Amino acid sequence: MASASLQFFAFLLALFGGFGDITATLLPNWKVNADVGSNIITAITQMQGLWMDCTWYSTGMFSCTLKYSVLSLPIYIQAARTTMVLSCILSAFGICITTVGMKCTKLGGDTDSKSHACFAGGVCFILAGIFGLIPTSWYTREIISNFLDQTIPESSKHEPGGAVYIGFISAGFLLIAGVIFCTSCFKKQQGAWIYPPKEHHFPSTEQESNTGYNLKDYV
């Protein structure tokens, strides 16, 4: 019962991590630049994401521009696009697989099949967490290095946006969920290896009868 509850908790973490991955991939605020200027009325907030760049004006206007050209983008943005999409796909696969393999569901067949399904889903969650952690770390490193560079003007410097933090949290949720699923199945298999079932050997009735017959012959 405790193992089933732990798997359900890990499944909820994986759900939050998967939805967070999708949200962080689509949000346009991976890095933010706030230019107040001489008047608060003319304040402009510029946001850049993986797929579009948006500008928000203090007057209430909001405009976005899609990034159509892939080759013109920096390498870290191209890598972030690829790895975040892979993270979303792997988390979706992990959710489908663990739904079949969890103990609280009636799918997946016998116990061994469900255990293998849970282990495969946990591996998918771990890979999804790694693929989600790589772009967020690389993107944050680029933002910080440009912010600390003295040769770059202040108007061109940015700060990490909300999508980066969502990506970090989602990657952590997926990693924790994957570890829980993998270790729960590993402990069960390890216990079967350490404590194998004892085999009971019973002498056959035929041998007993033969033994008794031989003893009578010698009397």
Automatic annotation (TrEMBL):
<feature type="transmembrane region" description="Helical">
    <location>
        <begin position="117"/>
        <end position="139"/>
    </location>
</feature>
<dbReference type="InterPro" id="IPR006187">
    <property type="entry name" value="Claudin"/>
</dbReference>
<keyword id="KW-0965">Cell junction</keyword>
<dbReference type="Pfam" id="PF00822">
    <property type="entry name" value="PMP22_Claudin"/>
</dbReference>
<keyword id="KW-0732">Signal</keyword>
<keyword id="KW-1003">Cell membrane</keyword>
<keyword id="KW-1133">Transmembrane helix</keyword>
<keyword id="KW-0796">Tight junction</keyword>
<comment type="similarity">
    <text>Belongs to the claudin family.</text>
</comment>
<keyword id="KW-0812">Transmembrane</keyword>
<dbReference type="InterPro" id="IPR004031">
    <property type="entry name" value="PMP22/EMP/MP20/Claudin"/>
</dbReference>
<dbReference type="InterPro" id="IPR017974">
    <property type="entry name" value="Claudin_CS"/>
</dbReference>
<feature type="transmembrane region" description="Helical">
    <location>
        <begin position="75"/>
        <end position="97"/>
    </location>
</feature>
<protein>
    <recommendedName>
        <fullName>Claudin</fullName>
    </recommendedName>
</protein>
<feature type="transmembrane region" description="Helical">
    <location>
        <begin position="163"/>
        <end position="186"/>
    </location>
</feature>
<keyword id="KW-0472">Membrane</keyword>
<dbReference type="GO" id="GO:0005886">
    <property type="term" value="C:plasma membrane"/>
</dbReference>
<comment type="function">
    <text>Claudins function as major constituents of the tight junction complexes that regulate the permeability of epithelia.</text>
</comment>
<dbReference type="GO" id="GO:0005198">
    <property type="term" value="F:structural molecule activity"/>
</dbReference>
<feature type="signal peptide">
    <location>
        <begin position="1"/>
        <end position="24"/>
    </location>
</feature>
<dbReference type="GO" id="GO:0005923">
    <property type="term" value="C:bicellular tight junction"/>
</dbReference>
